[in-house]
Design a protein that fits this description.
Helices cover 46% and strands 12% of the residues. The protein is an alpha/beta fold. It is an enzyme of class 4 (lyase).
């Protein structure tokens, strides 16, 4: 161990978070409709599998692209030898056009200000490397994506200070919350270099409002710090209010000639909107030429393959396809979101009102045995091991209130989603049937707990029997 670097032996990666532990348990016992119908259903994965048929249909109609041909002639050698970390000009042009399309063409983007990266994970980390030194801090509104504890901190040495948001106003960002987070950083002797937001929010599934943008922009202007807007879910907005990019807000406020213009940076990816996380396509967009130059150099450590760029440049340049895809994908997301919300409501569980994303922020506070994070973990383990659904507890997202969970809906079939709703309803009904009264004595409560355990075991057996019959 002494021969290894501290980075190899430290425990700051965040892999011990319940967010990742749930994935590990799922991988041990994954649900399969036929091979393992009683396994764990993965509802902790924000993956868009609803529109693959649209992508596959385009590929079938454009065989030259997948064969790496141009006008019938092979360009395999050209693509295989290309190594320029500035990226294929055709792809960068197609990508900024697609980004503009997602924003209703209310703003446009300059390909020369775009840096390609191997996914949004790489984009966020690269920006942090460019904007902050080890030991400095970024402020993040809670709840936030658990992976940020890894992406922003692990290799950069930068700290995260939470901006605490709560359910009283739908977890919206307020001026007082920004001020309190900044003061907390100062108490910890941390120099704040910026704020990072996700818009639409992961895990809330909500878009940033104009009022929140005003708070954020006024805040970074007064403090002389940066703002990173992670907009990888921009194409998943399926309901009103529509998506407003930070780029549009800057234009509306006529900030092009101010220093704020160069301190706002956008992260984008095709992982969520097109459902292509395996392609590893991300991007940084910045008006700061020094940041663009530095990030471009850093991108050589995580390039997007030229073959991927060629294929996607052809796909995104097909305007008829891209426009139809955006509309149809959003329609399907809205339908699937409605299925999850109504299914949970049928089980007596409500969700935060949302209009975007591949997940819902689900309120299970009424199912906790006490208003504590220990009770949240107890409930999470029951849902994971007994109900056999992997969802993400709010504590893994740094939520300040126990009992909230992120539940994903776009990475499975309708039948699997319906089955997950049957499971959660049976669990809630079983739990409610054995809930003890507040007046019960400790011995009575212990009897209730034992009875609950027994009824839950019987419920698991009944549901397993049901699933085995369904398999037949």
């Amino acid at each position: 161990m002494k021969l290894l670097a501290r980075k190899a032996t430290c425990n700051s990666h965040g892999q011990d978070s319940s967010y990742f532990l749930g994935w590990q348990e799922y991988e041990k016992n994954p649900y399969h409709e036929y091979q393992n119908p009683t396994g764990i259903i993965q509802m902790g994965l924000a993956e868009n599998q609803l529109s693959f048929d649209l992508l596959e249909s385009w590929l079938a109609k454009n065989p030259d692209t997948t064969s790496f041909k141009r006008n019938g002639e092979s360009i395999f050698r050209e693509l295989a030898l290309f190594q320029d970390y500035h990226g294929l000009p055709a792809f960068k042009h197609a990508l900024v056009e697609f980004m503009g399309e997602l924003r209703g063409n209310r703003v446009s983007f300059d390909p020369s200000k775009l840096v390609l990266t191997a996914g949004a994970t790489s984009a966020n980390e690269t920006l942090i490397f460019c904007l902050a030194e080890p030991g400095e801090a970024f402020l993040l509104p809670t709840p936030y994506y658990p992976g940020f504890d890894r992406d922003l901190k692990w290799r950069t040495g930068v700290e995260i200070v939470p901006i605490h948001c709560n359910s009283s106003n739908g977890f919206r960002i307020t001026q007082s919350a920004l001020d309190e987070a900044y003061q907390q950083a100062q108490k910890q002797n941390l120099k704040v270099k910026g704020v990072l937001i996700t818009n639409p929010s992961n895990p809330l599934g909500t878009t940033i409002s104009r009022d929140e943008f005003d708070h954020l922009i006024n805040f970074i202007a007064s403090k002389g710090i940066h703002l990173i807007s992670d907009e990888i879910y921009s194409g998943t907005v399926f309901d009103s209010p529509g998506f407003v990019s930070v780029a549009e807000v800057l234009m509306d406020r006529n900030l092009q000639e101010t220093d704020v213009w160069e301190r706002v940076h956008i992260v984008y990816s095709l992982s969520k909107d097109l459902g292509l996380p395996g392609f590893r396509v991300g991007a940084i967009y910045s008006n700061d030429v020094t940041v663009v130059a530095a990030a471009t150099k850093m991108s050589s450590f995580g390039l997007v393959s030229s073959q991927t760029q060629y294929l996607l440049s052809a796909m995104l340049s097909d305007k008829k396809f891209s426009r139809n895809y955006i509309i149809e994908n959003q329609r399907r997301l809205k339908k699937r979101h409605g299925m999850l919300v109504s299914g949970l409501l049928n089980a007596g569980i409500r969700c935060l009102k949302s209009n975007a994303g591949l997940f819902c922020w689900v309120d299970m506070r009424h199912l906790l045995s006490s208003n504590t994070f220990e009770a949240e973990m107890e409930l999470w383990k029951k849902i994971l091991y007994e109900v056999r659904l992997n969802i993400s507890p709010g504590s893994s997202c740094h939520c300040t209130e126990p009992g909230w969970f992120r539940v994903c809906f776009a990475n499975m079939s309708e039948d699997t989603l319906n089955l997950s709703m049957q499971r959660i309803k049976a669990f809630v009904d079983s739990t409610a049937a054995t809930t003890s009264n507040d007046s019960d004595t400790p011995s009575q409560r212990q009897l209730v707990r034992n009875s609950r355990r027994g009824s839950l075991t019987k419920w698991v057996f009944r549901l397993s029997s049901y699933e085995r019959k369904a398999e037949r």
